[in-house]
Design brief:
Blueprint (H helix, E strand, L loop, with lengths): L20 H9 L1 H9 L2 H10 L3 H4 L6 E10 L4 E10 L3 E11 L1 H20 L5 E11 L1 H9 L3 E6 L2 E5 L9
Parallel strand pairs: 3-4, 4-5
Antiparallel strand pairs: 1-2, 2-3, 5-6
Helix pairs in contact: 1-2
């Protein structure tokens, strides 16, 4: 009787994803940035889905149009950005940046984004006033105060409710 040989292929487990120096640095300095990176910013997507649909009704402006995830890529003028939510009417527009946990640095980034948006609009003959808002589930008091002093609206998720706080000063138009 001939001898039968059974060959089995050994499979190796996939190696675990290597932790890079950048991952370690983010974990120490900005844990939320590492979470966002690892989860593909899914928490941010969930937050946008929770907050953005009801925004039009929350403001005193008569916004007739709302769009999400507006990408602007003007390489010639070095204006590249994404706006999480843009509320519009004929006279003005409001750009909303949505975060899970809002920081002062996020507010500063939104100021830069608003300046770029104003430049882009001017280059395309758009003379509307652009206002800014920041939205998050978690906002500490220092960050809230900083945003309101910048003339930004602050939108917070609180249980089933969304609250909008008007700026301490005249709303800043870009």
């Amino acid at each position: 009787m001939p001898k039968t040989t059974v060959t089995t292929k050994k499979t190796q487990a996939k190696p675990a994803k290597k932790t890079t120096f950048e991952d370690m640095w983010l974990a120490i300095e900005r844990p939320q940035a590492l979470i966002d990176r690892r989860l593909g910013n899914r928490l941010g997507d969930i937050m946008e889905s929770l907050m953005v649909p009801d925004l039009v009704a929350k403001f005193g402006y008569d916004f007739s149009k709302m769009s999400r995830n507006n990408k602007i890529k003007d390489f010639v003028n070095d204006i590249i950005m994404e706006i999480d939510a843009l509320l519009e009417n004929g006279d003005c527009a409001m750009a909303v940046e949505v975060k899970v946990n809002l920081s002062v640095e996020d507010v500063k980034d939104h100021i830069t984004r608003m300046e770029k948006l104003r430049k882009y609009a001017a280059l395309h003959g758009d003379k509307r006033k652009f206002y800014a808002a920041v939205a998050a589930a978690v906002i500490n008091e220092d960050t809230r105060t900083f945003a309101l002093k910048q003339g930004f609206y602050v939108i917070e998720l609180s249980g089933e409710n969304i609250t909008v706080t008007e700026p301490f000063v005249k709303p800043r138009a870009f």
